[in-house]
């Protein structure tokens, strides 16, 4: 797998990491029934960080980021997002969800709405924006992900890569502070992976706080400032990308990297 | 990344299609005579159609429309239909014993029905939705007559409870559950203390009244329409709520919904109708009269609501879980995401099942003849009881069947149009 995921130079001028904590997770545990899926997770994400979470399938990486906007409920420990603690209080959950954008492996666009309606729905209903403003914002973000001309089509008429870019635009329309990516390129063809990664790189260049679960090691190496390796529901290793790839500490990481980068 | 080495810039010129595409002979060859088996089947089918229609068409087409009784018909030509009975009794088949000088009322109600459904079916008239809300009350008043104020007071009660909810929610910042309780309490207070003086006062000041028509005078197709359309209009929202309730995380809500659905689905409609007509009077306090048509509508409604709930649940189950997750991740609340994301898709998937239930309900209204309400089928027996038409079966049932067919076929066609209109993918 090639490391160069983009031909152009990545502009790092705005990729600043502030001291402000965006997400704080401490001693978090989660079970699915009796299966212990996340064990003693401790993680602190500062504003502007770009974190890539990797690991073998079933290691709990998706579950971890889904806990951050409460698509999954954690049973023990604390998750604080933007100073608000996730508890069963619905108001807090709604508040956090409107501040945290999320992109899914299968895009999950709303098939009965046009691209533009997909993007304006949440701003209108959750942010109480006027339709006109919401449409302007949506068009701006659709231009940013380079598909403004598809605005009146339905998701079913777009290619996978285009759908994922719409999904990113849809999240951005809520002006989120944090973006979560749950394997955004795993169900795409190689050419389409590139267009989605390009969009994500642009987002990173603007200083967005991002947590990406992905197998794109090129992306991790070039864009991330921290790589987290998970196995068996635990964070096994976390490090800067260069250190992580060239000098992995644990045996498990070495094995994983040799498998994923070996061919 | 791989460079795309070759991309065609101009489309290839089109070749002409083979003969089987786009010509009549080609179509016949392809669809009717594509092999010896299909040729035999085609010939057999044509013969079958011929046998079916050979006797029916002369019987129906040559039908007698002008005789005064069945005897007269048989004397003229015993081999053709005696449609004269329809000429003589069509008013009854349509309106039952509704007084003929008041026929304008059901007719007006019927016309207004179309006006009232327009905002629901044609989005560009959506701003006239208020008429769809007024229509049920208006229809009740037009059909049953009496003073307009008791009907109006029902709307007033809704308005009062809405106001109560609004004040509780926005002025006193109560939770939505508490506000709902306030809304219910305000309805009760309204009915206990305000409604009767209000009705009496307005009856005195503005006596807007129509001649009262008793429920037992309703009949014929009018009755089928009233029961059918009320049942359809009421069972749809109740079905949606039951389907959502059945999927709810709250155990009590779920238990009530499952229990209700399973009970109602396990009981024949006839039983429910008997309960409505006979047993309910035992349970109600003596002296309370509870209109028979209303009782029937309630029973038909809960019956088809249970089916509706299961049909809609099927649609809900067919939705990928990602739709729930995506709408939750965007910060939409439960009701917002149900209304904007989940239900539009689930209902679209369930259109065939929903219309199936509607059509079933509409045809099941003929069962009210069992509890001696005079729907078209009940009237058919009544008409036969007349000496002049004693012994006439086919002609009446053909006519009644045709009326039902037109309505049900219309619904079915509309549902197919709706499915085509709502299709948003390329397939």
Describe the protein in words.
The complex is a heterodimer of chains A (263) and B (427). With 263 residues, chain A is α/β, with parallel strands linked by helices. In chain A, 37% of the residues lie in helices and 24% in strands. Chain A contains nine helices and ten strands. Chain A has a six-stranded mixed β-sheet with strand order 6-7-8-3-9-10, with helices on both faces. In chain A, a hairpin with a 2-residue loop joins strand 4 (76-81) and strand 5. In chain A, helix 3 (115-125) packs across helix 4 (131-144), helix 3 packs parallel to helix 5 and helix 4 (131-144) crosses helix 5. The longest helix of chain A has 16 residues, at 190-205. The radius of gyration of chain A is 18 Å and the shape is globular. Chain B has 427 residues and is mostly helical. Chain B has 17 helices and two strands. Chain B has helices spanning 24-31, 36-61, 70-76, 84-95, 104-121, 129-144, 149-170, 176-205, 220-246, 251-265, 269-283, 292-318, 321-329, 334-349, 351-364, 376-385, 394-421, and strands at residues 146-147, 209-210. In chain B, helix 4 (84-95) crosses helix 16 and helix 13 packs antiparallel against helix 14. Chain B is globular and about 80 Å long. The model of chain B has no long low-confidence stretch (mean pLDDT 88). The chains are: A alpha/beta (263), B mainly alpha (427). The interface between A and B is medium-sized, with 35 and 26 residues.
Give a nutshell description of this structure.
The complex is a heterodimer of chains A (263) and B (427). With 263 residues, chain A is of the alpha/beta class.
The rounded distance between the terminal residues' Cα atoms of chain A is 7 Å
Helix content of chain B: over 70%
Shape of chain A: globular
Determine the mean pLDDT of chain A.
90
H/E element sequence of chain A: EEEHEEHEHHHEHEHEEHH
Compressed to H and E, one letter per element, the order of chain B equals HHHHHHEHHEHHHHHHHHH
From the helix content, strand content and strand pairing of chain B, which structural class follows? Answer: mainly alpha
Structural class of chain A: alpha/beta
Strand content of chain B: under 5%
- The strand line-up of the biggest sheet of chain A is 6-7-8-3-9-10
Task: Count helical runs of chain B.
Answer: 17
What percentage of amino acids of chain A are in beta strands?
A: 15-25%
Number of helices, where a helix is a run of at least 4 consecutive DSSP H or I residues of chain A = 9
Q: Tally the beta strands of chain B.
A: 2
Largest interface: A-B, 35 and 26 residues
- What is the gyration radius of chain B calculated from CA atoms? 28 Å
